[in-house]
Amino acid sequence: MASARYKRVLIKLSGEVLAGSQGFGIDPGAINKIAGEIREIHNLGVEMALVIGGGNIFRGLPAATGGIDRASGDYMGMLATVINSLALQDALERKEIPTRVLTAIEMRQVAEPYIKRRAIRHLEKRRVVIFAAGTGNPFFSTDTAAALRAMEIGAEVILKATKVDGVCDSDPLRNPSARKFDRISYLDFLNNNYKVMDVTAISLCMDNQLPIIIFNLTVPDNIKRVIMGEKVGTLIEE
Length: 238
Hints:
Elements (H helix, E strand, L loop, with lengths): L7 E6 L2 H4 L8 H16 L3 E6 L7 H6 L4 H25 L4 E5 L8 E2 L2 H9 L3 E5 L9 H12 L4 E5 L20 E3 H7 L6 H9 L4 E5 L5 H6 L6 E4 L1
Parallel strand pairs: 1-2, 1-6, 2-5, 3-4, 3-5, 6-8, 7-9
Antiparallel strand pairs: 8-9
């Protein structure tokens, strides 16, 4: 059997993928499918950390445009990521994958507080680690939290799992003839202001030379294909 290309990765999941076809909340079928794919990667010996968005439950920025204080809205969004993280932890542990949720906002009854050394130790013990509540600060996206945590734990790559095939020259959901890039530089991404990932996260990765692969999670086995080194999605690097 071929070996995995990466030893330690951080996977960024959008909250929307947990909603499945229902478009809101948590779809048990969707989350079980994701857990099954993560189990396959875990069985390859890959050390995995995950960051999950909260858009299937609540989004702080749109709420702010509706009159909610931006900081309050962002904190509400962080709590939504904790709900998603606990749901995925449950799905993984039902598949006998040891999992720990570490949250940037302390809530000891439901999750461990985020401590860098503890997170790395969990990874070394072959536990899947889920980072919840973003960075713990308003005005920062979960993309930025993923970039920060990936650098802290020494991940080799960020795998951003979305509903699109990668970075395209226009919105593929609106333009069926949009052209996907197999590879793009950090600067080209920033200069063209592509919307598929937060620019603060891209800048952090550029400053620290951390590659990003953006790919479509809804295609079966795509996570495993990326882990095995196949050319899937769009690679963002120098």
